[in-house]
Every structure is written in C-alpha cells, then in structure tokens.
Amino acid sequence: MAGRSAIDRLLRPESVAIIGASSDPAKTAGRPLHYLRLHGFTGEIWPINPRYDDIDGQRCYGSVTDLPGPPDAAIILVGPTHAEQYLRDLAAAGAGAAIAIGGGYAEIGEAGAVRQERLREAAGDMRLLGPNTIGAVNLIDRITLSASGALDVQDRQVGKIAMVSQSGGILGSILSRAAWRGVGLSHLVATGNEADLEVCDFVEYLMDDPATSVIALYLETLRNPGRFRKIAGQARRAGKPIVVFKVGRSEPGARSAASHTGALSGEDRLYDGMFEQMGVIRVTSYSDLIDVPMALTAGVKLTGKRLAILTSTGGAGGLIADVCGMAGFDAPPPGAKTAKRLGALLHHDGFAADRNPIDLTLAGLSPAIIKGAIDTLLESNDFDAVIPIVGSSGVGSPDLVAVPVIYSFKSAGKPLMVYTSPSAPDIIRRLNANGVPAFDTPEGCAAALAAIFRFSQRSQCKSTRLKST
C-alpha cells in the first residue's frame, strides 16, 4: 500500500470494508457484497455488522477494530449518527478512503449542511466520497463499490472513457446507455455532495490513468473553478480531452441543481467562457455525453472540414451533408484522381463517381465494394473524414457495412464514423464495441466531428507553440 494515493486505493482497492452490511442482497445494504462478488472482485471483502457472525458464508466483523488490517476502501451504509463514529474508527485504522452512501446532508438545507460538516470532520485526514452518492465503479478491474440498483447493469463494455458525475442517478443512466450502445467505459464515479473529494480530485487522478483516454463530466457546479482551470490546462497539454455536460443553463435547471446536491450553479455563461478558454469540450445534448467521448477515443486528428459521405440511400446522404454543413463542414466532390479510383471500383452503369454524397445505390452493393470505396476515400487527399451510412439494406444484411468499416477503421489515419439511417441498435452496438464511433442521429455525427476538430486544432496550436520555443 505504501506510495499509493487515497484515490488509487479507493478506485483500485485490495480490501473493502462494508459498514452495515446486510445478509439480503435484495436490500440496499446487501448490494455491495453482492456486486463485489458478482462482478469478480478478487480482493478481501470485510462486512461489518455486530448482528452477524457471517453473511452468506463470508465472515462478518463486529467493528472496524476487529478487521485484519486497514481497508483500502470502506462503504458506509449506516445513518449519519453512526456514520460519524465509523469514520473516526476508519481514519484511526489507516483506511484509504470511505464512501458515504446516504443522503440527508447539505442537499436538504442548513441542518443537513451542519450534519455534513460533522461527517467531514469525523473523517479527519482520510478521504471521503459523498455523502449523497451511489459510489464508484472500476470496470477495468471489475470493482463495483455501490449499493444502488442503478449500477446493476449487464453487458458492461470495458473501454477508454471515464465518467465523473455529481449526480448518482445520472451515473446509472450513463452506464446503462453506454452498455446499450456498446460504448466502453473505464471508471465511473458519483461525487455527490462533495464534502471532501470533488470532481477536480478525480480529473487529476484520471489524467494519469493509462486505461483512460477521455474524461467525461456531468456537472451541476464547480466548487473550485481555479483548480479546475489548472487541471484542465494540464489535461490539454497531456492530450487528454475533457468533455462536459453541465446543467443549470436555465433558471429552473439551476434551482434543481441547488436542491439536488447543494450546488450553487453560478452564471452559466461564465462557464461557457471558462470551458472555451481551457480547451474543455462542452456538449449541449445529453446523448453527446456518450457519443462525443466515444468519437474522441479513436485518437485521430481532424485537420480540415471536408467530408466524404458514402451512402446507399440518397436522402440520408443529403441529411448528413446538411446537418454537418450547418456545423461548418463541407462535402466537396471527389477530385479527378479519387473519382477515377471510385469509377474503376464501382463500374455499374449509372454510378456517378464525381459526386458527394457518393451514392452506391446503383453500384451493386457488397462488403468488398464498400470496403474498397471506404479505403479509397480514407487514402484520398480530397477528404479529411469519412462517414459511411447504413441504409435499409444494411439492416437486412448487418455485415454489409459493419464488417468493411471495422476492418478499415483499424488502419484509418483520419476520422471514420458511421451514421445509421434506420433504427439499427445491434449495428451501433457492434460498431462501438469494435471502437468505431456509430450514431443514430445526424446531429450526433456533427457534434462529434466538431469536437474532434476543436481538440485537433488546440493540439496543433500547442504543438506549434512548443516548436516555436
């Protein structure tokens, strides 16, 4: 344990104490033990409840002082009065960090704020997550530190996106939506009322986490804007994008945030200015909090705004061209060299190789032809990004577009993303699970492209400044 930070011990514990553990996995107090076992935690689990000698064959301890050693992480499931004493005992024992699951603190008003301050003082130098949190999940190491049914999600996909949320319920929503879309996550943390550990602590930790390439945040407020500025600047210089969805843009939203976790939202336009200055990508659509980080995980740069749109349905091609055009992108026709390569590949009567969107309807669709067209466009100097579209024929034949895209994506040196025109959740899930950003709305494609372009431009500016010095 020597040399490990408190947050590292919290997110990658070798031992977990469960304060107030229950023998019933259907109850809130029974879930942490159930989750740790279910998801494959290989460390020590130490339930604490003086009413039991064992829980489902697991030895149960009467107090913190009875434990074999100091736990790396502790989940506190008891009420505020008892929680204070347990925190003191854990701190005295040398525990790494504790998670205070329960509510009834600053989010309910002045009396709760006083109670929360006592909780923080009881923790002493030990770090505290919460209160009013659902906990944390480390998908890399299969560790779920929570008592919430919101995190009982099957088919979790391990990936490169870390999600930090000031709302526990939103974290559960993100996990289920990501699983449904095949989007992989590395860590999820709900910071709750942030009596001690707050968003900046986890961004700072995740910035150095090799398993995480993009950090996504759901924010109600920033309790320490100055610190966030510093850390966001460090993340930008390290080449690790931060994507933020912040509520409080409207007056009702700001009031709701304040009543939820005791957050003071402040003037929202000031956040816009700060995010822009710090190179933080702010998204305004909730779905973009998953889609944009997914697109950024590919790690490829977007150096221009010329799109190649490959489609078997003219209407969907025009839709992508229009929506992305509104976001500042262009869909110019292929140059003579590219058109010649496309024409040689797609020599069916009626195919027009000099247009964009490049419509394959009359080209005789096959995976080989589609892969050849994608590779031609990726290799062409005429375009900066390629968007193949899954049409109705792709739904009936799932391998038609998915397989060529997956193979081409492995060696793509520019952004390659897919838009599915009909409802095709299985294809979206399959593509995302293979690292290919896939979207079911044209607006999602446009938002992802805009985010990649902005991040690429900032990285280029940083590189240019470094060279000039």
Give structural attributes.
Rossmann fold, disordered C terminus, 17 helices, 469 residues, alpha/beta, elongated, 19 strands, seven-stranded mixed β-sheet, 16% strand
Structure description:
The chain is α/β, with parallel strands linked by helices. It folds into three domains: 1-133, NAD(P)-binding Rossmann-like Domain (Rossmann fold, 3-Layer(aba) Sandwich), CATH 3.40.50; 153-297, Succinyl-CoA synthetase domains (Rossmann fold, 3-Layer(aba) Sandwich), CATH 3.40.50.261; 301-458, Succinyl-CoA synthetase domains (Rossmann fold). It is built from 17 helices and 19 strands. The protein has helices spanning 6-11, 31-38, 80-93, 110-123, 168-181, 199-207, 225-238, 251-261, 268-278, 288-296, 314-326, 336-345, 367-379, 392-396, 399-409, 425-433, 442-468; strands at residues 15-19, 44-48, 54-55, 58-59, 73-76, 97-100, 127-129, 136-138, 143-145, 158-165, 185-190, 214-219, 242-246, 281-282, 307-311, 358-359, 385-390, 418-420, 438-439. The strands form four sheets. Strands 9-8-11-10-12-13-14 form a seven-stranded mixed beta sheet, sandwiched between helices. A five-stranded parallel beta sheet has the order 2-1-5-6-7, sandwiched between helices. Strands 16-15-17-18-19 form a five-stranded parallel beta sheet, sandwiched between helices. β3 (54-55) and β4 (58-59) form a beta hairpin. α12 packs antiparallel against α13 (367-379). Residues 260-265 and 463-469 have low confidence and may be disordered.
